[in-house]
Amino acid sequence: MTFQFTKIATGALLACAVAVGAGIAGVAPAEAKTLRMAYDADPVSLDPQEQLSGGTLEMAHMVFDPLVRFTKELEYEPRLAESWEQIDDLTMRFHLREGVVFHSGNPFTAEDVVFTLERLKGSPDFKALFEPFEGAKIIDDHTVDLVTVEPYPLVLNLATYLFPMDKAFYTGTDDNGKPKDAIVKHGSTFASTNASGTGPFVVRAREQGVRVEFERFADYWDTESPGNVTEIIFTPIKEDPTRVASLLSGGVDFIKPVPPTDLERLGNEEGVNLVTMGGTRIITLQMNQDRVEAFKDPRVRQAIVYAINNQGIVDKIMKGFATVAAQQSAPGQVGHAADLKPRYDLDKAKALMAEAGYEDGFSITMMAPNNRYVNDDKIAEAAAAMLARINIKVDLTTIPKAQYWPEFDVRAADIMMIGWHPDTEDSANYTEFLLMTPDAETGYGQYNSGNYSNPEVDKLIIQSQSMVDQEARAKVLQQVERLLYEDAAFVPLHWQDLSWASRDGVHIEDIVNVMDFPYLGDLVID
Amino acid sequence: MTHLTARLTALLGSDVLYRFRRDPVALTAFAILVAFVLAALLAPWLSSMNPHDPAQIDIMNSEIPPVWTSGGEAAFPLGTDVQGRDLLSAILYGLRISIVIGVFAVMVQMTLGIVIGLVSGYLGGKVDAFFMRLADIQLAMSTLMLAIIALAVFKAAVGAEFYEDMAIVMLVLVIGFAEWPQYARTIRASVLAEKKKEYVDAARVIGLSAPTIMARHILPNTLSPLLVISTVQVANAIISEAALSFLGLGMPVTMPSLGSLISSGFEYIFSGAWWITTFPSIALITLILAINLLGDWLRDVLNPRLFKG
């Protein structure tokens, strides 16, 4: 009988040992130019248009290339488009790079851009972004026009999200008789497991949730890129301390994100290259008005906002490694209304609950991911505890993101957590996805799990989309933030800071950016 | 009444009690165990807050170190965890959950084990062969592995939300079902030895039914090994629960057992907040050690062949 005890104790010890010394097996010095990296999670699909998420876009920047991309200073850098010009109010002409080939060997032409834009317009997640576009027109093999329905100020911003896909590769039917270009969220499609892009890396092997192996694409067009990484071994490590321990023990070369609790330690550690940056990803909670009658009452929503001590969350859970928020637009973005302040006030919250007739509170469910945002599960747990103080009893569930997003898409809980980084680096993008009235046709409100609907907000956002006068547009977008603030449309928590760490000699400082899409193709390892 | 007094006198004058009083290890272990059980029973009165009630938790109190270190606060003698829970209260309530799961899981094991062991041993033949091969198969796989598979499947099937409500019941059942062979085999061995004895023949001759013979005549004579395994099995069940919770398959973070407390503090151990993991671990180790020492002592006492003199 005692041997049982020993066995289990050994098991527990072993678990500790694995966590502490994950790298013991990998202590051998890294082979030249192999990057072993660990993020908190791996992309859920190889289809760059299946899910609009950070994980997908990180993958897209490795396997595909956008037409243009943002530099670290948020300027446009030509990628597959060599140059571009405004032809008229509605048309932007892109001159495509010649001599570019896809991983499959097919040449890259204007046809692929048209195919990609059409597919984007049919993707449930991306279509709202590309809603303003009429379509793409081929001028010749290497010239293409992007035409918008109305004058649109963000064409180039969106060109950073246009990752041309290999038309010939994705045309036809797969072994199951399904079209190869089908997009099925959380489904198993040809595109979710096969990829042919023009990007610097080719997927060599992939086991979802366990390991992805990339190798450098031999015929990569960008021969001027300083990048010298020939192979990437990408292992998702969900547990924060394990990820940090792997870096420290030499098991991996590059990790993201760095948990706030370990920032100080990594910063002081010899041989570690820590890079941090203020971010624009807002973390919010959405209150589902379709599921909970009480959430239809703005006073109840305000009470919830007043009850949540987001400053406390930033100070204690995030260790100051985030900026407390009262709105969606981060400081510096056009829609940021500087007069909106965080509103934690427990007495006010209780008074509002009493006023709305919910003094005795009610019970709700809440769901949050546990490996998507920095400390997401702990934030959710703290928020649930805060709501208990205004007698709202929260039944909290935290699950890994691979299971969370399907739940989110069916709006499985009364309060759901979502973080958003504006894909266009523009304020309107937050509202378009998170708070506009959900509309499957246009894709607006695709991530509005609160089912919040305010016709005035919808109108202002649509109006802002065709405003070319930046000053007037900023006023409109700030007006939107004020409306949402008054209405307590969502619970703003904070903008999460960004962090990366590598061993010395891996020059991540040159390739990371505020979008949090590391350009690994350009990474230099000494 | 006289019957009871007679039994009590017999117990007080018994060899077991005499040797218990003379054995400092057993005395200490017993005292510790009683202290832990009392602490668990009286948790609501001993703790300064109810760690399962989120309304009493304040994030601003998070990660306060123990009172004797700099930055400690008297209100939180062992410090607080990352959500601002008083660690001492959390340990007391966690102890409750751990002990409840341990005791009930052992009751499930015992019920299953006794029934199967008695039936196999007494009836023999095909029934015996079937149950014992089943036990062999199950013993070939580790308890934890079985429990992890069962819990993971259950969690995926019913969804995480429902799972958290049912966590205690599921842990009791899973740990209970995973370890019945320990009991069944011990009981069967005793039954095989006992059923050849004359008193069983006598019972059979006067026409008692098989179930009555098993329950009223054989079972009481197998109780001493049962007592010994039970102590060890309680310790095992508590450890299994802690391990499962540590792996995220046990008690939810909002209702932490000792295992989930250790698990939630684990990621802070490098970052300075060592107390979140350390104190629940000490509590767990002490509890298990006390139970195991008592079990060992009981085995020595009840087994005359191991008599140490």
CATH superfamily of the largest domain in chain A: Periplasmic binding protein-like II
Q: Tell me the β content of chain A.
A: 15-25%
CATH class of chain B: Mainly Alpha
Largest sheet of chain A: 11 strands, mixed
How far apart are the termini of chain B?
A: 35 Å
Question: CATH superfamily name of chain B?
Answer: MetI-like
Sheet with the most strands of chain B? none
Cα-based radius of gyration of chain A, to the nearest Å: 24 Å
Number of strands of chain A: 17
Largest interface, chains and sizes: A-B, 48 and 43 residues
Per CATH, which architecture of the largest domain in chain A? 3-Layer(aba) Sandwich
| Oligomeric state, counting identical vs distinct chains | heterodimer
- The geometry of chain B reads as globular
Account of the 3D structure:
The complex is a heterodimer of chains A (526) and B (309). Chain A is α+β, with helices and mostly antiparallel strands and 526 residues long. Chain A has 2 domains: 11-235 and 506-522, Periplasmic binding protein-like II (D-Maltodextrin-Binding Protein, domain 2, 3-Layer(aba) Sandwich), CATH 3.40.190.10; 278-497, Roll (Dipeptide-binding Protein, domain 3), CATH 3.10.105.10. In chain A, 30% of the residues lie in helices and 22% in strands. In chain A, the strands form 3 sheets. In chain A, strands 1, 8, 9, 10, 11, 12, 13, 14, 15, 16 and 17 form an 11-stranded mixed beta sheet that branches. Chain A has a 4-stranded antiparallel beta sheet with strand order 4-5-7-6, covered by helices on one side. In chain A, strand 2 (68-70) and strand 3 form a beta hairpin. The longest helix of chain A is centred in the N-terminal third of the chain and has 19 residues, at 2-20. Chain A is globular, with a radius of gyration of 24 Å. Mean pLDDT of chain A is 89; it is low at 1-31. Chain B has 309 residues and is mostly helical. In chain B, 72% of the residues lie in helices and 0% in strands. Chain B has a single domain, classed as MetI-like (MetI-like fold), CATH 1.10.3720. Chain B has 14 helices and no strands. Chain B has helices at 2-12, 15-22, 24-41, 43-46, 87-123, 125-140, 143-158, 160-178, 180-194, 198-205, 210-218, 223-246, 258-266, 275-302. The model of chain B has no long low-confidence stretch (mean pLDDT 87). At the A-B interface, helix 1, helix 7, helix 10, helix 12 and strand 15 of A face helix 8, helix 12 and helix 14 of B.
